[in-house]
Amino acid sequence: MGKPRVHEIAKKYNKQSKEIIEILKKNNIEVKNHMSTVEDAQVAVIEKALGAKKEEKPAKKENRPDNRQDKSRNQQRNRGQQRPQNSQNNQNRGGKKPEGQLKDKDGSQNQGGQKKVLKKENPQNSQKFSNNNNGQNGKNKNNKFNKNNKKNRNNKFNNKNQNTQKKKKTGPGAFIKPDPVKKPEYDPSEPVKIPEILTLKEFAEAIHIPANDIIKKLLISGGGLVNLNTELDFERAEEIALEYDRIVELEETVDVIEELLKDDDEEDTKDLVTRPPVVCVMGHVDHGKTSLLDAIRSARVTAGEAGGITQHIGAYTVQTESGTITFLDTPGHEAFTSMRMRGAQSTDIAILVVAADDGVMPQTIEAINHAKAAGVEIIVAINKIDKESANIERVKQELTEYELIPEDWGGTTIFCPVSAHSKEGIDDLLDMISLTAEVLELKANPNRKARGIVIEAELDKGRGPVATVLVQKGTLHVGDAIAVGSAHGKVRAMIDDKGKRVKVAGPSTPVEILGLSEVPFAGEVCMAMENEKEARSTAEKFIAYGREKMLSETKSQLSLDDLFDQIQAGSVKDLNIIVKADVQGSVEAVKQSLSKLSNEEVAVKVIHGGVGAITESDVMLASASNAIIIGFNVRPDPAAKDAAEGEKVDLRLYRVIYNAIEDIEAAMKGMLEPEYVEKVIGHAEVRQTFKASGVGTIAGSYILDGVIQRGSTARLIRDGVVLHEGEFGSIKRFNDDVKEVKTGFECGLVLENYNDIKEGDQIEAYIMEEIPR
Ligand SMILES: Nc1nc2c(ncn2[C@@H]2O[C@H](COP(=O)(O)OP(=O)(O)OP(=O)(O)O)[C@@H](O)[C@H]2O)c(=O)[nH]1
Is the CB of 144 under 6 A from ligand 1? Predict the structure, then answer.
């Protein structure tokens, strides 16, 4: 019987996972998330807390005085039920699928899937693989059991959790009598979701196998010395799980900010009040965006502000007779689009500036498309009407092509002829903005925790990280704990667009904030949190998520396989190479030959050369400089091998210099020979041996798994050690030569030019399979 997970307990008691986590926290029990398992004793603690709550407020239930409470509970319940559905949807959405899953899928099409099945049946394989050199490319992908993934070492959050968990379990709650909670039945055939990285202990619990058993098995099968705290990446965990006939699936990594935003979206309409519109100015270069913004600002400078230093904080508000308008002070649609990250729309209305003397130009069209894509209302400002060459009608005419039809022509788009120079039409434009805002019924709840978007951010020498935040919901206060992407902190001070220190900022208000731990990115969401601890943990989760994403998505080192494509795409100008060889003479010879390969498109550069094994530091240098490593008669040491896999560095091993030159030349021309990988197709066990004159030793064998085929290569293994590799001399069933023998059948095998075969030996058959490029 498995331990229940937080979300299961939550479901059982009609609570949100959050609430359960909260209860655990209050009792000093740290859990990672809703997927975390809960010890029996801890379940008792939860039940006690829930029970206590009920007892505290018995009257409420009877009298039902508070409809809202019931309502919100219902909402929570609904939400709780919807969540799994959501995550399923996410999985189906191609873009959201974690890389690990995709990789796995691919893997099952090539040697990966087959390899894993074989491993399940014959754990010795891992030993064998590490004893073998897989062809001249030397990408020993099979040696996963020895892998010490670099990623793991970085995962400080996992470590942290693990430590706290350990501490808590020895605490006072550990000996509370187990509760009678009905645990969900554990079904070993059901796939188990696990995170990208987890400790062996967590893994053992997840697949319901005693950790000691796994540790022993790994040790015996050559998987190396591991302990409870050894971190396993998904790939390794998956392999071990297969040994126990368990299926594991990668837990979906969720973007913590997206999740928070999702939870945050529901808002009671009665709490909403009208908020000022947020307006941006777009248009073709030189059509007067900056001049128009300046004209609006100067036209609206009130007596109090006159003479004051105008602050350029990326946004400003102007007061009109019909209310406040917030302008984003970043002309051009680049800023506008960058602020659409996470779907957090910053702008309500776009002012499309078109010069009356120039008409619709390429960037005008671009701006229209961006605004339309974002679903932003467009108001056209026909600028420079003071110019003699101005032709308002022509602009109107041209814009009809883009479905911007003026009201007086029967359309719905507002057109305002203006002059940033003479200020003509500016007031009219402001009125039209307010009118549009009214129609849009822009509303927000000012009485909630603030949420906003970063418009600009920089590191100020004296003040530290400074960010201009446009508050979108709620009210931000000085002293609020906030999380902004990877940054967090407490709002130390807020300065408005007039340079005044303010204590609060409501919806649609831009403010400069001080007190962040680092400079956030423009476009990132700013969220006020319950307390600083929560803010920090949100930022940390964001960093962890970002790093995972970076590792899985953006890390792509140069490889010979895609060199040609990259040269064609113009993304590779220098082909950096690190050369390691057994003797200095070879290093020099390779350097010279390689440099001669440079052509107009790409310069071949040997950035480092040396004698001896390929080390981790060679790999790190290659990773940092996007280089390929070439080794002659040398091998990578184990750390280098792991690092190369982790850093995705292309590491190629050769015996002959000529082959290396040939490969690189071919890669530059896009004509690299296909790469082959070994695919094990079957195993036979030798049950009896016979000697026959003229033939040699015949191994009377039984096919354990897969198939032994003519044309495949044989590998003779005794006690996990590979003794011989070579061709099959013959494969016979009774006295007949056959093409293949399948699992469960007996046969006579002869190895070409090899007779040292003994009872109990294993014969592995493999073929070299081409990897599609
Ligand atoms: N006559 C006249 N000239 C104007 C008016 N508005 C802007 N200009 C001039 O047009 C030129 C471009 O104006 P900007 O405000 O810099 O235009 P912009 O669209 O912000 O330009 P970029 O920021 O380069 O894209 C400047 O020389 C302005 O003086 C106007 O209403 N009338």
Answer: no
